[in-house]
Amino acid sequence: MSWTERLGTIGVWRGVGDVDAALAQTIEALGYGTLWQGGSPGADLRAAEDILDATSTLVVATGIVNIWKADAAELARSYRRIVAKHPGRLVLGIGSGHREATPERVRPLAAMAQYLDVLDEGGVPLDDRVLSALGPKMLALAADRSSGTHPYLTVPGQTRAMRAALGTGPLIAPEQTVVLDEDPATARETARAFLGRYLRMSNYTTSMKRSGFTDADVADGGSDRLIDGIVAHGSAQSLSAAVHAHLDAGADHVCIQVLPVAGDIVPTLRAVMAQRG
């Protein structure tokens, strides 16, 4: 089974505490293949288990389990418990967080390698785990010790570079933030409010500058050029085009994070899915 067959072409990224069983069932019914549980899901994976219990085909992926906050041995035990009930429907997205929010974050590459050693010992196969990799060293580790990468706040050019680096086999499943709003001024206001916290985190600003944005682009809340490049906004057709730009660049699967203009993400999810015909 290919990654696209397993995960679907398009998934949904949403905070782990922001999706209940009813919303998960709606996401599944709309045709999305995977729910990515954002933030830092706990090592017990109870939230993933609850969603899997409430649905029948939806894959649940963590996006991401933070290695500094979730015990690896407990995560492996939770993984085994869940896949015994729901084989093939759980993917562990794993990451090292960011320095500003995780003071204990030191030597993240070495720490990630040690974490993966514990998952190896705990019976978590490479096919069921991916790493959040923004830089080349973590991407190389993802290729060697997991099934691929789940990058956050990246652009299609980065997807293309990752595909060139990883070759044809590994999973590339980027997140794409979207705003269904055809007024550029209000859409940018929504996007800028969302991006503000990330523009104070060095791993994200470094990634943005690596992709071609400048110091000026990431300063003062982000330039319009950066806002438009990172957060797709406009009509449903425009949002769908942003998803397909990643797919055309080599992604296997793209998960959309909806910034709701009126509090409800379902209209956007329905509108984007309708563009697939």
Descriptive overview:
- This protein is an alpha/beta fold and 277 residues long.
- The protein has one domain (3-274): TIM Barrel, CATH 3.20.20.
- 46% of the residues lie in helices and 17% in strands.
- It contains 13 helices and eleven strands.
- Strands 1, 2, 3, 4, 5, 6, 9, 10 and 11 form a nine-stranded parallel sheet that branches.
- The chain is globular, with a radius of gyration of 18 Å.
- The mean pLDDT is 95.
List keywords for this structure.
277 residues, alpha/beta, TIM Barrel, 9-stranded parallel beta sheet, two-stranded parallel ribbon, globular
Short description:
This protein has helices at 3-7, 21-30, 46-54, 72-85, 108-121, 136-145, 156-166, 184-195, 202-210, 215-218, 224-230, 236-248, 266-274; strands spanning 10-15, 34-38, 59-63, 65-66, 90-95, 129-131, 148-149, 171-172, 175-180, 231-234, 254-258. The chain has 277 residues and is an alpha/beta fold.
Please render the helix and strand layout as text.
Blueprint: H1 3-7, E1 10-15, H2 21-30, E2 34-38, H3 46-54, E3 59-63, E4 65-66, H4 72-85, E5 90-95, H5 108-121, E6 129-131, H6 136-145, E7 148-149, H7 156-166, E8 171-172, E9 175-180, H8 184-195, H9 202-210, H10 215-218, H11 224-230, E10 231-234, H12 236-248, E11 254-258, H13 266-274
Parallel strand pairs: 1-2, 1-11, 2-3, 3-5, 4-5, 5-6, 7-8, 9-10, 9-11
Protein name: LLM class F420-dependent oxidoreductase
Organism: Microbacterium horticulturae
InterPro entries: Lucif-like_OxRdatse_MSMEG_4141, Luciferase-like_sf
